[in-house]
């Protein structure tokens, strides 16, 4: 398994953001990580990418424990955070070159060219990042994440801020990357899940309420749209059932 999470808990002071979640993810699939605001998606991603430590439980990426071997974890992961920090004063190509240098990437110019094409940054490559629109900045973030060709990609709301044309391109890129890599993507957009994900984990109030192949989830609720399934599983008042009762764990 590329990603293995076992009984992971995160407390922020008295608030429990993650309450003993466990899941696994493997290469060749795109895993959609869904949940309402404040469910714990970003917290999970930040733990997996070694930005914050868990309170208890275990998480490993490609066999490397996030606490014991954070440098190894970071080496195998590409991460696009929700609020993606970028070097606004740098030119696009300059920033990508900088990332190449950090990762000691061979064939630097070739790889930058390849990634610029993949992320559709051709027309913007000579601009300063600070001069780019929100959508293009998002593309730079994605370009930076995939530049070292990581085995695992963790993408926190990767299409936020993109216009519909850009969304289509980025989704197809994510699908392509997901054929060989382990991709975890967090999103609120159900169409995105339908378009990109093979497997979904739905998290609610720090607990996993569904962990299922997307097709299996659909067949369990044949009359419901994915949106409706999501609402059912994350709001126990709706339809009067919770995810646990629905047996989707
Ligand atoms: N640094 C922090 N200090 C205190 N509480 C935090 C901190 N970061 C997150 N939380 C809380 O932990 C819970 C989970 O937050 P998290 O950002 O992981 O949710 P999320 O599922 O990513 O939400 P969203 O979809 O809104 O981005 C929320 O209640 C949030 O307020």
TrEMBL record:
Domain (ABC transporter) ranges: 3-230
GO molecular function, one term: ATP hydrolysis activity
Top-level taxon of origin: Bacteria
InterPro entries the UniProt entry points to: AAA+_ATPase, ABC_transporter-like_ATP-bd, P-loop_NTPase
Keywords: ATP-binding, Nucleotide-binding, Transport
SMART domains registered for this protein in UniProt: AAA
Family to which this protein belongs: Belongs to the ABC transporter superfamily.
Protein name: ABC-2 type transport system ATP-binding protein
């Amino acid at each position: 398994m590329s990603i293995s999470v076992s009984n992971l808990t995160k407390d922020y002071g008295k608030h429990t953001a993650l309450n003993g979640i466990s899941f696994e993810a493997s290469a060749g699939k795109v895993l959609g990580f869904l949940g309402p605001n404040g469910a714990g998606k970003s917290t999970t991603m930040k733990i997996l990418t070694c930005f914050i430590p868990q309170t208890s439980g275990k998480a490993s990426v490609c066999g490397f424990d996030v606490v014991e071997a954070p440098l190894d974890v970071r080496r195998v992961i590409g991460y696009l955070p929700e609020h993606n920090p970028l070097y606004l004063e740098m030119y696009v190509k300059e920033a990508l070159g900088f990332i190449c240098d950090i990762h000691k990437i061979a064939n630097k110019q070739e790889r930058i060219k390849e990634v610029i094409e993949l992320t559709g940054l051709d027309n913007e490559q000579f601009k300063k990042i600070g001069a780019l629109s929100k959508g293009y900045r998002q593309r730079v973030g994605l370009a930076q994440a995939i530049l070292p060709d990581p085995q695992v990609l963790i993408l926190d709301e990767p299409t936020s801020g993109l216009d519909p044309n850009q969304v289509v391109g980025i989704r197809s890129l994510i699908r392509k990357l997901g054929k060989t890599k382990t991709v975890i993507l967090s999103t609120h957009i159900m169409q995105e899940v339908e378009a990109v994900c093979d497997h979904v984990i739905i998290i609610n109030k720090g607990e996993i309420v569904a962990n299922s192949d997307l097709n299996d989830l659909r067949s369990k609720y044949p009359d419901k749209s994915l949106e409706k399934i999501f609402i059912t599983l994350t709001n126990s008042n709706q339809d009067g059932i919770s995810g646990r009762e629905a047996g989707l764990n």
